[in-house]
Amino acid sequence: MRTASAHAMEIVKATAPALEKHGLAITTAMYARLFRNAEIEAMFDRAAQANGEQPKRLAAAILAYAKNIDKLQNLGPAVSRMVARHVETGVKPEHYPHVANALLPAIRDVLGEAVATDEVLAAWGEAYWMLADILIAAEAQAYEDAEAA
Ligand code: HEM
Q: What is the pLDDT of residue 24?
């Protein structure tokens, strides 16, 4: 499990309000990048069909959870929901870099280099991978349980 450094957590908390203020723009920019990959786009198409609504919760969740990065142990029920959804839609560890590579440039697209400096993006990268590792571990367990059943 990767853990974000104390320094990264400080930066994430300090910049979370700016990211949230521009949350919709960042989300839009992130999905535009993510959906350049047809395989990934298909996962979201299936989710939208099953769901009947435009699935845009993923980016919002990353922004929201990252600012609670120093108390992620409180995420319990939210994690179970995400894991359930990810297992339904077939999310695997190899998909996580795609989201990181869409989200971090999207933050820079929207906030610009002056605000989204290399240091800020690196801190958000650490926050992302800390969250991702929690999900990846829980999903591995869920896939294993499903296979055993
Ligand atoms: C740290 C990384 C991630 C976080 C925090 C996250 C969070 C979430 C959340 C909160 C939801 C909505 C769950 C609900 O129904 O309440 C969701 C759904 C979903 N996620 Fe993730 N996710 C992450 C990574 C990924 C990755 C790597 C993929 C695959 C490319 C992915 C694909 C999906 C899909 C297809 C859905 C269903 C659509 C939807 O209901 O929004 N997620 N995720």
A: 85
